[in-house]
Amino acid sequence: MYLTRGSLLLKRFNELLGLIAQSGFIDHWWEALKRQLEREAREERRRGAAAAGAGAGAAAAPPADGDAQVLTLHHLQGAFALLGLGLAIAWVVFAVGQIARARQRLCGRLKLPGSRGHFGLLDSRFKEQPIRPTALAAAKTRARDQTSVLF
Fold first, then answer.
1. Which of 31, 81, 104, 142 is the most buried (most CB within 10 A)?
2. Are the C-beta atoms of residues 126 and 108 closer than 8 Å to each other?
3. Where are the transmembrane segments (predicted)?
């Protein structure tokens, strides 16, 4: 199910899988996996028997290479430090955003001259626009001036 029906690579992929199956690689890998699992099960049974034979009063043996190890806070210290650093950065970014938002709202309500948006960039809502009468407004003004002269 790695390739969808109609994919250009599907035919070649199926050919390669067929070659791998015919050459016996899949059977070889399966047998190797079974041998490895059997060997691990034998070692686990041996360890269990050795621990039971040592008695309940004996101290637990230190873990051998490849065995599971109990994680303590000492092992996780770096992860917690990284988490704390990330949280501190997130808090600072959040606070700066809230301050900028409050400043933008305040400047928008008071209509202060030269008010700017976030991080000093000019905000188009607060930018002073020159008054440019449109052609229609200019024509109306001329028509009104001409009529006032006549009367």
1. 104
2. yes
3. 79-100
This prediction has a pTM of 0.31
Burial class of residue 115, CB neighbours in 10 A (0-12, 13-18, 19+): middle
pLDDT averaged per 10 residues, the chain (length 151): 78 88 88 93 85 59 66 89 96 93 77 50 53 65 64 47
Q: Is-contact 126 117, C-beta < 8 A? A: yes
Q: Is the CA virtual torsion 93, 97, 100, 103 positive or negative? A: negative
CA-closest candidate to residue 117, choices 131, 97, 89: 97
Q: At what angle do helices 25-54 and 10-23 cross, to 10 degrees?
A: 60
Three-state DSSP at 24 gives coil
As a whole number, the mean pLDDT across the chain is 76
What pLDDT is attached to residue 119?
47
* 2 neighbors 13 (Cβ within 8 angstroms): yes
CB 143 within 8 A of CB 132: no
